[in-house]
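Good morning,

Attaching, inline, the backbone tokens for the sequence recovery test we're adding to the shared suite. The designed sequence is right after.
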């Protein structure tokens, strides 16, 4: 192996790492020692434990990933890593990385992604570490990384090591102690999906000339998976794929699969003369999803509930039943009702996939989801966009076996609501808010509103049942997560929730969640925004959101 070089450096402020890793503007990461400092801090935090181990490296295809991969490989070699598996062209979707870690029993992996945030030289970049069951790094690791970034004085690297050709699959050895193997980004993941789903059933359904669907990769990482999985393995028509060439800037778009940013797909699916029965999209790193029927949108909260309700019948992996289900606190209560009917354990967690991972590792959770377009199962330890798409296709395929007329996405949803009731749900995102103003609003809610929001208090037309700042004690490791979102729950089960999101690279995003439960079938098909209008007005009035932020409307409505 090439000699190890010690490069002097100094701490750089602002490298605090969460379970979603570290996200900043790409210009920051690509300048000076910014990336190298963080990677060295990671290996210093892992210490002796990582020496002699194998890891995987890949990302979502955004600008700077290929250059960053070479930097990371050289630092990994210098810090005693034995082998680095790298996705071809540095491509590896986040759920696929989790699958690789689990299948190959690796120590962990580095994922280069800023998730659903824009890419390019002027946009976002990010990196995170996943641990040995394929899950996002626990806080004990991310906290230690941050401590190391504050005292770092040198970077260990093999700077004379030649760059690895990441376009060619195969292994390159550097002496006896270090090697790099470029692997297919698809193969391990595809193998796992075949264990979960009935590919024969899916192929017979998807190759039918009477079924038309469209999948939009938003020029992000699932573009590398769409053709091998949906076309080559499942027989779909190639013209069913849209924006499936991964680009470093995601084609100039925002790779967030929602009604605002996936507008090209939405336009196709809501065309009154449209031919498509099913539409789906995934995000930058392939862990999120959006599901659409003809003129019909499935909310992420409903999606996880409907998948759970149909899983045992439609997905072979779950034929023995579900171990349990879980949702994040802001996600609607639709899943709760499914859990009660199936008589399986139910968990309400803070936002963050690590909480689901703990439950899955303990054998307590099979299916979980977040309202932020993240849905997944215990086959990996990340949310999984393609898994959710195949889950819905499996439900459609099974429901249409021997059916006299086509059973649509809308048919499945309406049947679900008739059985369980409908949880009307919406999320308002106010992106890029001034951080100080956003924090003042949350402080106002915590200090002025919560203490006075006692049972029986009136807010608009609603009566308070209880109000709190959500706190979670992990049933597996006993850890406590506090201040996870201000929530006000009303006597009819309706809820308003306020959270600050940390998934962007600058500014603050305020998320307002609104939910109302309805059992009257005559009201179930009302537009969600119309049904929720009174409670939305109450939420805005109570929070003084416009007064604090100056925003008179949200950036995104889901």
């Amino acid at each position: 192996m090439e000699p190890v070089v010690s490069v002097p450096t100094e701490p750089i402020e602002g490298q605090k790492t969460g379970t979603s890793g570290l996200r900043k503007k790409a210009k920051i990461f690509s300048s000076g020692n910014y990336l190298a400092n963080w990677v060295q801090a990671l290996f210093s935090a892992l210490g002796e434990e990582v020496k002699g181990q194998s890891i995987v490296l890949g990302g979502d295809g955004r600008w700077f990933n290929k250059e960053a991969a070479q930097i990371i490989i050289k630092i990994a070699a210098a810090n005693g890593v034995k082998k680095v598996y790298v996705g071809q062209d540095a491509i590896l979707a986040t759920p696929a990385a989790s699958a690789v870690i689990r299948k190959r029993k690796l120590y962990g992996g580095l994922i280069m992604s800023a998730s659903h945030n824009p890419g390019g030289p002027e946009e976002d970049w990010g990196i995170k570490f996943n641990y040995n069951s394929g899950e996002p790094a626990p806080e004990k690791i991310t906290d230690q990384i941050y401590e190391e970034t504050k005292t770092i004085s040198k970077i260990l690297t093999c700077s004379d090591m030649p760059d690895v050709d990441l376009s060619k699959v195969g292994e390159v050895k550097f002496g006896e102690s270090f090697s790099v193997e470029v692997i297919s980004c698809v193969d391990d993941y595809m193998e796992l999906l075949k264990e979960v789903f009935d590919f024969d059933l899916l192929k017979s359904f998807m190759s039918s000339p009477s079924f038309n669907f469209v999948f939009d990769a938003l020029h992000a990482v699932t573009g590398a998976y769409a053709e091998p999985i949906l076309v080559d393995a499942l027989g779909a028509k190639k013209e069913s794929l849209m924006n499936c060439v991964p680009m470093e800037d995601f084609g100039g778009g925002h790779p967030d699969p929602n009604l605002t940013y996936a507008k090209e797909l939405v336009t196709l699916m809501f065309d009154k003369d449209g031919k498509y029965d099913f539409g789906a999209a995934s995000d930058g790193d392939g862990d999120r999803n959006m599901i659409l029927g003809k003129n019909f949108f499935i909310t992420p909260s409903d999606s996880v509930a409907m998948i759970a309700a149909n899983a045992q019948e439609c997905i072979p992996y779950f034929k023995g039943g579900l171990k349990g289900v879980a949702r994040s606190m802001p996600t609607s209560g639709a899943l709760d009702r499914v859990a009660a009917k199936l008589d399986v354990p139910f968990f309400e967690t803070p936002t963050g996939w690590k909480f689901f991972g703990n439950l899955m590792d303990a054998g307590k959770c099979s299916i979980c989801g977040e309202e932020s377009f993240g849905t997944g199962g215990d086959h990996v330890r990340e949310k999984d966009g393609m898994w959710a798409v195949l889950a819905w296709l499996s439900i459609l395929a099974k429901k249409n076996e021997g059916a006299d007329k086509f059973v649509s996405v809308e048919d499945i949803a309406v049947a679900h609501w008739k059985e369980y009731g409908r949880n009307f749900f919406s999320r308002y995102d106010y992106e890029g808010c001034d951080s100080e103003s956003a924090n003042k609003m949350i402080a106002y809610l915590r200090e002025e509103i919560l203490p006075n929001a006692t049972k029986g208090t009136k807010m608009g037309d609603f009566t308070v049942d209880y109000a709190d700042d959500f706190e979670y004690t992990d049933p597996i490791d006993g850890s406590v997560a506090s201040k996870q979102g201000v929530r006000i729950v009303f006597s009819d089960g309706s809820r308003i929730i306020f959270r600050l999101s940390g998934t962007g690279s600058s500014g603050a995003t305020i998320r307002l969640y609104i939910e109302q439960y309805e059992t009257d079938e005559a009201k179930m098909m009302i537009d969600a925004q119309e049904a929720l209008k009174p409670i939305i007005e109450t939420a805005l009035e109570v929070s003084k959101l416009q007064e604090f932020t100056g925003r008179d409307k949200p950036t995104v409505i889901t």
